[in-house]
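This part of the workshop introduces the protein records we will be handling. An example says more than a description, so a record of this kind follows:
>
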Amino acid sequence: MAVAVGVVGCGVGLATRSGARHLDGDLDLFPAVLAAYIAHGLTHLAQSAVLRGYTPGVMTVPLVIAPYSAWAWRALYREGVRRDATRLRHDLAVGAPLALGLAVSGHAIGRLAEAAQRRFPAH
């Protein structure tokens, strides 16, 4: 879980840094990453609803994903960035592959960490 949170956190952090540097012009991929981050949070909620119980990651939605996303969208809005339905669909279309890439990378890194832990036990 720490690997997954770290990978997603690094991806969102890098996009936030990039977007913050370009508020007066091209936001690079920040709106797309933000849309994908929100969609990622919704998948956690959907998993818990379908399985009718706790699933890994569901607690990050109210504690991390929702507050950060609300803050980021408000910051963009204050800077004059407006999102309509067409632009949001575009951001999701661009952001979905980014989110998938982060998920696959996090999974691969987690597998490598597990393999290393089995090969080189702590004791």
